[in-house]
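To close the chapter, one final illustration. This time we ask the reader to focus less on the individual chains and more on the assembly as a whole: which components sit near each other, and how the overall shape emerges from the parts.
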Amino acid sequence: MTDRIREFLRTRTDDGPVLVVDLDVVRDNYNAFAKALPDTRVFYAVKANPAPEVLSLLASLGSCFDTASVAEIEMALAAGATADRISYGNTIKKERDIARAYQYGVRLFAVDCQAEVEKVARVAPGSKVFCRILCDGAGAEWPLSRKFGCEPQMAVDVLEHAHRLGLSAHGISFHVGSQQRDPKAWDKALASAAAIFRESADRGISLSMVNLGGGFPTKYLKKVPGVKTYGATIFQALRKHFGNRIPDTIIEPGRGMVGNAGVIETEVVLVSKKSETDKVRWVYLDIGKFGGLAETMDESIRYAIKTPRDGAPLEPCVLAGPTCDSADVMYEKEPYLLPVSLEIGDKLLIEGTGAYTATYSAVAFNGFPPLKTIHI
Amino acid sequence: MTDRIREFLRTRTDDGPVLVVDLDVVRDNYNAFAKALPDTRVFYAVKANPAPEVLSLLASLGSCFDTASVAEIEMALAAGATADRISYGNTIKKERDIARAYQYGVRLFAVDCQAEVEKVARVAPGSKVFCRILCDGAGAEWPLSRKFGCEPQMAVDVLEHAHRLGLSAHGISFHVGSQQRDPKAWDKALASAAAIFRESADRGISLSMVNLGGGFPTKYLKKVPGVKTYGATIFQALRKHFGNRIPDTIIEPGRGMVGNAGVIETEVVLVSKKSETDKVRWVYLDIGKFGGLAETMDESIRYAIKTPRDGAPLEPCVLAGPTCDSADVMYEKEPYLLPVSLEIGDKLLIEGTGAYTATYSAVAFNGFPPLKTIHI
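The assembled structure is written out below.
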């Protein structure tokens, strides 16, 4: 929460939930990443918050961009990034989308299997590809599935296939899991990456880049280490596994870049109990799982919530959204502590909501509009 | 799948996933409900599919409308419904939204606690309210939480409170759980409703309506009983619990009205394995959890999928969406059987997708547009 956001909300007159993002915080975050990992190029993960204001700011600061689709490539270009600063980082791409990216000048593509390599080779000849490998995601708060990446031993074959088809077998990428609270999580993946570098060299292929992915956390309820700690720990791991031949590296922060820059203001619509004897109250907000808080899925991300009655005694509440969908409940298995004096009409502030909120929101579910977003 | 949808898709030239809804099927479903429960008024659950074409058709057939928000009330009015055919069925409403609904002429409101009754009494004086009671949702495929409704013993107090505040204590509502495959599920809830009717009468309040809710299933992979069976079983339960003093009844079908009217055409973007020895292939589509298939959350709803290679031997696949989100996986715990010969570029048809798809889709997640929708 910043003074600028506080001042904006103080004078706000319109109705409904709103996300306010303070661009000064984004600027500070970018500078912190650049300083913590001075030899690493920063590719902002556009999907975290693709607002033109965020992209333009980051483009002007010199950031590169990790994109998930042609639409995101177009947004990065519109924000002033040149094509050589854009990575098409989705391992799942239609061949005609790869062709469009190539027409835009993009030459850096993620792959995790031979079929994807073949698509790139056909319509983006000579491009650089990096192969994503699987990580177990231990220590991350947002679930990491096996959706992206292949087993490390397969990556060598995938990169060799790329090399044979005339592509530049550029390197390795991995993702240690979003909202990764353990800086040591990079160590194991870097050990795999180094092994792939050696095995590829044995086959005559010289890899040069390790994409360290994202995963850098933002502060929700629990404390997280600072960017500096991540930088130092990752550098140690690079040194440990690559010795004095440290490859080019890139990082893809998303949540870590914009998460703590945003605050959602929401209103308490109803406070009720299910029976006279119920211990736990239900608190219903005008925003829920389908309005921007999708990351409360399985109660994964636990946001910090400020109320106008902080300081009053707390009691556990089930927190739910405003739609007629019984799945639209944010915190129930582990109820959320809120002031006992909380009332209908109170305005709450949900902190750390600058990433993965607005663009997740449903287009018109139950007739509710998508989350309004202001960048200041 | 109907001939009209097949013909539409045959001549389609644009790219990306699309939902095609056949309005003739919606018409048939409406008539089947009207016939199966001839003394029951049908309130279509607008949230299931609020497309103007669906609402206009149902309005012309004489349907009433169950709405979740002021926006849905406005859509129902725009489609030709008069305000006396609209219920504001969300138990979670801002007081100013109740006031707007009242200005539009709406006089029927859902409540499940005294605080909500007080809002209605203040800004919608004299309106009819029905109190929603909790159901356990056993037999339903979509999870039913305790989000809506109160314990039956509390409902009498809620309705008495409404009566005292000058509202018309109209009746009881419940929901047996969405995609409810057991027609007998209504029996237990009707027993509670009848008990509340008796208790209210003892307190001098004469209730007259039971809202039987939705829950009527559409056919996905498993067989479901027909509407006729539901109608007969529910009527038996009404007779059993209310004898020859059967109250006015309404139903709120959503999924059962539009689910089987829609088919999504999607494309296979990638087929891959995570290692050479993996038994299970990953099949990635150009639609996923954030593009309209939100109801695959926790693998709840299992759609029937047709491929151009049906008839070939099947093998288990993990089915995932196209976004860079590791949670965007539809079926993994229980892999989906698809033809072993399935290839990148194949067009698949996801059946039974007329309800709870298009409006759930994210506004722009990963740069992907919301689900395109055509009504024919």
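The mean pLDDT of chain B is 95. Chain B touches chain A through 82 residues (CB under 8 Å). With these observations in hand, you are ready for the problems at the end of the chapter.
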